[in-house]
Amino acid sequence: MAEIAAELVAVERKLWSGKATSVSAQTTEGEIGVLPGHEPLLGQLVEDGVVVIRTVDGEKLVAAVQGGFISVSTEKITILADTAVWASEVDTSAAEAAENRADASRSDHDRAVSELRAVKRLQEH
After folding, report:
1. How many CA atoms lie within 13 A of 108 on its CB side?
2. What is the mean pLDDT of the chain?
3. Is 46:26 a contact under the CB 8 Å cutoff?
4. Burial of 96 by CB count in 10 Å (0-12 exposed, 13-18 middle, 19+ buried)?
5. 56, 69, 74, 83: which has the fewest C-beta neighbours closer than 10 Å?
6. Strand runs (DSSP E) across the chain, as ranges?
7. What are the residue boundaries of the ATP synthase F1 complex delta/epsilon subunit N-terminal domain, all occurrences included (predicted)?
């Protein structure tokens, strides 16, 4: 199976680095899927996006991301997010409350939506 080096980095921490068989991300141009051998590209991530990484071990890693960029070269896929959190780290109750709170700021609402999408994507097969 083909593989490529990949990493997910947020401003506050490095979330993951390793070998992947595919990466998908939501960009301002739409959702893209990247496989080894993909043409080089640079894309802007949406503010309430989800990134899915399929590792060479068959693991599915899902993160909620808030803005940033995805860079694809022939050797590596790099996701540089403004903020990111693993779906497994999301407090679903708190995210649902923030999504529904009328006085929530736009960024808090977007973060909650992104986190809930990530949790849902993690649960999909």
Report:
1. 12
2. 94
3. yes
4. middle
5. 74
6. 4-10, 14-27, 30-34, 41-44, 49-55, 60-72, 76-86
7. 7-84
